[in-house]
Amino acid sequence: MPQVQHEDQQARDDRRRGARPRRAWRNEPMSAKSLRLAGALVAIVSTSGCATVQAGMGFDEVGHTVAERTGRRIHWNQGTAADEAVEQEVAALLGKPLTAESAVQIALLNNPNLQATYEELNIAQADLVAAGLFRNPVFDAELRFATEGGGTGFEMALVQDFIDILYIPLRKGIAGANFEAAKQRVAGEVIDLAGRARAAFYTAQASAQALEMRKKVRAATEASYALAGRLRAAGNITELELANERALFEQARLDLRTAELESFRARERLNVLVGLWGEQTAWTTSARLPEPRPDEVGPEGLERLAVERSLDLGIARAEIERAARALGLARPFAVFADAGLGVTAEREQEGDLGLGPAVALPLPFFNQGQPAVSAARAELRSAGERYRAQAVALRSQVRAAHAAVTAARERAEYYAKVLLPLRQRIVEQTQLQYNAMQVGAFQLLQAKTEQIDAGEAYIRALLKYWLAQTELDQLLSGRMTSLEATANMNSGRSPSGPAPGGGGH
């Protein structure tokens, strides 16, 4: 900070001897020129502070980006009539069976964390406004009383960091780059939420389907156990066979309870993401997961599209711009960052008032600014390398996500075209043999139970496909995702039950 001019040792010695201080302008009265100098400085520093922060800047751009990438709209609650209209829209969507698209739209309109994220735009915009303001001037004053007679003296100075005036365009450039990055980050958070809500909806839908399958398994094993009880009472089966049937039934009951809990948890995860509570949580969904989509674009075209639309790379580019502007700021101003210019006034105990200019200038004896310039160059190089690394990682994620989608689609189609028809054929043939009294009821019930298990495995395959497709869609919407997170969601026994054959059949 600029330092106020103080008396030197010679001036203090002169005062002790009763001599007047040795300053060329000390005995001159305040002139009109000096008054104009003081007035001009005060006018400059006062008018430079007229700036306000306008809330909501940049939100329209974020909304346009989100609509372009997801086909959904967003809303920032501001305590207006539009907020009530959004509540009515959410209620209307909840009045119908939820789909993946309606769940995403509710999340983007109703998630409280998203409303908090929008405030980042106000923070970045406030920083942009602050970057265009002068630093506050520094006022310093001293009051001196004579120890023996005499009057009262004083010294005052008003100093403004004039180099800071030259900083303003560069500072605004840096803050502008940060503001652009903030808009990209907020849009990315919105798209992230859309992807999480979509994945949570598919998981809840799959869990509900798996629950229905577990109910069918329980009913089949219960019927088999009841039949075994009657046969045992008639002496047609052994106690061991009856115990085996009971074990299957008890395992089915346990699996059903697990499926109920998993379905409940899946619904609650979706409730959190879409911001629902109370009576709003009584929503319903469509009955089944949709069939896989056809593969429309190869991995090469997907890579190009993902790079073009990447918000993460946009943030990295904004960081490069910020670092470049910071280097431009460091080069010319690293040495004289604290230079000040102002006006000073002084009067001794007995004397006229003196007024004149004041200058504060750092002397670059020890630090000529090389460290600041070197650090700024390093930050710029680092930002460039991070951009290249992120582009490589993005392309890799696109290839991996496309491979995951392809594999999941093939698995789901194999179940639909091969395994499920095969299980259906086995049930039909077993039914014919049962009608001809060539097999018993146990074999028929087992065939039906295995058919249900295959159906549940198909649900898991569909869920893996839609989670993988959601991840790929996120990348194409401009947001990098975590392959590990998706792998964790896909791992485990099932959406809400054991693996095929887990019931012991």
From TrEMBL:
- State the superkingdom: Bacteria
Q: Which InterPro entries match?
A: MdtP/NodT-like
MF terms in GO: efflux transmembrane transporter activity
Q: Where is this region: Disordered?
A: 1-28, 486-505
Q: Where is the composition biased (Basic and acidic residues)?
A: 1-16
**Protein's UniProt name:** TolC family protein
Q: What species was this sequence derived from?
A: Tautonia sociabilis
* Taxonomic lineage: Bacteria, Pseudomonadati, Planctomycetota, Planctomycetia, Isosphaerales
